[in-house]
Amino acid sequence: MAVHALKTSKVAHLRDEVSPEEWQARIDLAACYRLMDLYGMSDMAANHVSVRVPGEPDAFLINAYGMLYDEITASSLIKIDHEGNILAKPEFGAGLDYGINRAGFVIHSAIHRARPEVACVIHTHTWPGMAVSTLACGLLANTQTSMRFAHISYHDFNGVVLDLGEQESLVRNLGTNNAMILRNHGLLTTGATVAEAFNAIHRLELSCKTQLAAMACNTPLVDVPADVVEATYLNYQPQTRRPFGVMEWPALLRKLDRIDPSFRD
């Protein structure tokens, strides 16, 4: 823990420079980055989690490109607008001048702009997610957990997402869904809160792991009748249950506080 404190202590503290609502969003987003790393869903300094700034519909927070997920703090996040302009960033110290990753901006800004009800977007390059993204069958709805994503969206691979022209197809393919498989690339989830988006990526990741494990057994898989899959899918939808993440998010924050509370800095 002492080593971690040394890594993050040089980032200027922003708590007194932002609204209480933005500060809470920063804490939740920093916590999400730490949890992504804790649960094995980080990719060194690559990939991104973003959250809309409360009260600023055209601005969102994203990680500084070059920091590892387990280094990220509430103050280290960078605020940008939908055009990629940096609105606010801290002094990182030690001659560092981190910016943002263009691919992250292209993907996240497209969704934040088009889906005002979405507060948080998570994109990963995990081995299970990437593996399933290469399968012609896609994600199979053959476990209770994966049936939550029975109508998951798909977006075909067109190279590294650097072209603003791809934003339209990203948004169109996502539709009103809260999860999408980027073929030959990785996974993406959204949520009305950070907690909701994290819950979705955790369950989607688990669904991919389970499918790969079952397929590796080289034995026929048990098919579930389509009507049962659909009924199970509907049980996971917003109109039938409380929002995902509500129950476990406070506990996850307590878990992080026990491990290393510096995400709150």
Automatic annotation (TrEMBL):
Gene3D superfamilies: Class II aldolase/adducin N-terminal domain. InterPro entries: Aldolase-II_Adducin_sf (IPR051017), Aldolase_II/adducin_N (IPR001303), Aldolase_II/adducin_N_sf (IPR036409). GO terms for molecular function: actin filament binding. It comes from the Bacteria. Residues 27-212 form the Class II aldolase/adducin N-terminal domain. SUPFAM superfamilies: AraD/HMP-PK domain-like. GO terms for cellular component: cytoskeleton. Belongs to the aldolase class II family. This is Ribulose-5-phosphate 4-epimerase/Fuculose-1-phosphate aldolase. It comes from Enhydrobacter aerosaccus. The lineage of its organism: Bacteria, Pseudomonadati, Pseudomonadota, Alphaproteobacteria, Hyphomicrobiales.
